[in-house]
């Protein structure tokens, strides 16, 4: 028996959101957007790179490649041509705590999009030949990624911040782990986790919920993947957490630009104080009017790119400041970063900065939900990692309700912790420890 729930009645700029649980624990969530002519379909699997045991390192992302290589019904060309031949797009991404396979097509092509994605997610062959082929592709991807220090510095920061645990390792895996990962290990991982209780199908656009449920159920039945009494896997709301670490990681490279990330651990994604942290982040380094951008670029011309950011996981998070600058200017930049962090703790943000931070968060949220893909992502991710779907109006209200005292309290708690620094540039064994002291 399936069960359907109304998650949101619409009326706050969002459409009607419904949720159905099919036999075997497969969840289907939809949001109607009757004024558009497109639909976005996502199949979310609640498994990410942080779930990998040592012998499976890199398997989550490896599967992202392999699932497009072929099924009993379609080969790799037929998978991509089926969607691209109707003017749609199909792709996937892997994160630390989930993986998503998605397509965006015209509303009339919804049945095909669901059929192709369900086929890919449930029935991949994962052949030894495909594993060897994609092994080379992934090694090329790692090499390409390693050529971009602005990407690598974030990975190095996470590695130093969390240590040698899955949360601190690269999503792509390492050259060594990809070279040694066997077909049997990957297939074992696939069959263990790519099951209906771990899966959420989210669809947004000009659709009928009942029609979507019918199409999803039919596609999973064809694959022999529907049925049973299993319940949906509950959202990941806790974990081992991570303690703040003080450390410096320098990657010596003969680059023309130095790249740095300075930061610390922060709040988990379900912490009620995350809205205050968001306001703090927006005001401190979230745009051209932020403190860091003004001090580093506008007033002193020390860098082209300077911003702060946050990332949230089930049990922890991170706050970081990224800057790209000439190597000769890195000490001046780090000095300003430390001064601004200390100043926020000692003097608080101004009321004007807090108002601006709230406005940036509110506007970014609403403007980011203007298309079917972003709506699909919101409801799919929410179903997978939260215990409730918070309506857009409620999120906006929570942001608006943030007080200066709440921002100050979060700033004191997060920014007073031990700091971690990652640097990439031509620095040899230069000592940067004074900037995290």
Could you characterize what this model shows?
With 437 residues, this protein is of the alpha+beta class. It is 42% helix and 20% strand. The chain contains 15 helices and twelve strands. It has helices at 59-66, 76-84, 110-123, 128-146, 149-162, 175-180, 183-193, 209-222, 274-285, 291-298, 330-347, 351-367, 372-385, 392-400, 404-415, and strands spanning 3-8, 17-21, 27-32, 38-45, 89-94, 99-106, 199-205, 247-252, 258-266, 303-312, 317-325, 420-425. A seven-stranded mixed beta sheet has the order 1-2-3-7-4-6-5, with helices on both faces. Strand 2 and strand 3 (27-32) form a beta hairpin. Helix 9 crosses helix 12, helix 9 (274-285) packs across helix 15 and helix 11 crosses helix 15 (404-415). The radius of gyration is 23 Å and the shape is globular. The mean pLDDT is 95.
